[in-house]
Amino acid sequence: MQECVSMTQELSEPRGKAGQSLCIMGAQELRINRTLKTSRVSSISLLPTELLEIIIVETVRASTGADDCSASCKPTSLCPRPRPELLLASVSRHWRAVTLGMALLWTEIRLFLGQSLDLLDLYLMRSQGQLLDIRFTGIHCNIRGRGSPTCEPEYLRISNIILSHIHVCRRLEVHVDFPFTQLLDRIGHTKAPMLEELVVYYPPNIPNSRLLLFTEGLPSLRSAELGNFSSISPDPFLSGNRLTALTLGGHWDAGLSPKNFSDLLSRLTSLTHLTLIGEPVDYVRASNHPVVEIPLLETLVLKPEANISRIYLPTVFRTIRAPMLRELVLDFDNVSSTRELQSLVDKLKHETPPFPSVCHLTLRSRSIIHGGWLALAHAFSGIRSLSVSRYITNQLMGFVSCSGRRDAFPNLCTLWFDDVQFEWLLLFQLLQIRKAVGLPVREVKMKGFKEHAQSVINGKLSEAYLAVHAAVLIGWT
User: Which of 135, 183, 192, 421 would be a feasible disulfide site paired with 159, CB 3.0-4.6 Å?
Assistant: First the structure.
């Protein structure tokens, strides 16, 4: 009995101490709340600096990404939205101190006609000597004939700003809808030793030779995106052993000559990624189409626009040699008529496969013309993974499941779908057929599958399927 009493006393002591601690903590919480109310300090100002820096970086990154998507291939408005870093710096004193201490937030210099020098100087001061990302975008409706915009002094002022800081520029983008030949000429004679990325889009439908010439060279250039140029001198790429990514855009009537295109690519000995948007090479008016070999090319992206010429795609496939090509992206979403693709289908169906080393094929299209899948199966029989857009997912599964086509793409082991909105029974049938013929698919990935599988019905459907086909991994991207 005495032992029980002593044990009860021992247990009551920690309870008393715990209760006392809770009382102390409650009093402290009450005191902090009173302090916040009396001093009018927001709770958000008490966030740890490390957490606040993450929030600021992600907020600016999300806002910048949205601006880049909205401005892709199109000039932006003369009334830009407020910069997120400026807004974040005005939340509170604590947020301002943290934001001003993050120099990388202030390295993105956005220029437009009418740009305030005070704002520019503010960004340059806060960037603390970090390499700059300069972007000159905007629209100007009043074009005076073939010359410069009506506010030529303002245009020259912005050009001088770019030139005065290009020596500490890491990325330069020029994308406006008026001629800027003087800027291109002056950039061509200015050293830019730190420039790694170059994006230049000349306005289309404006008569001009648009010769891009860099006599000083760009020793650090890694990536270049050039649009609407009818002539590009290979001289800027004398350091072609460093440039790895090139994007060309435009239309054939103002595009590069086949010889210029071939000479340019032949200089780029380290090129691994090539993207062709629209129809940047004029194969229509030229009779001589020289072949060019790109020995290290790993990724080729073809994204034709509406109303491309019928000879463009077959000629690209015939004139580019890429023995190390691993990934091919065919983006036909913007092609207005299937007739424009028929010549490519005929070539792929009957001629020697153009890129036998391709392992991953990405196909984006709203529909596949007659004979298209058969041509792709012949030309790219060695692919191991295939990615298709939402509009043609059911067509692909129907083709591969069709009797007589079940051995198409014999090495295919991974499927990528852009969406989960397709006939799931077709997928199950496809996987069963491929397994039965000894060509099993090992992995299926799709966008949005995580949310799709969280619903009760779809979750049970997936679980039931996985119970039968345990060897197939279904995931999401």
Answer: 183
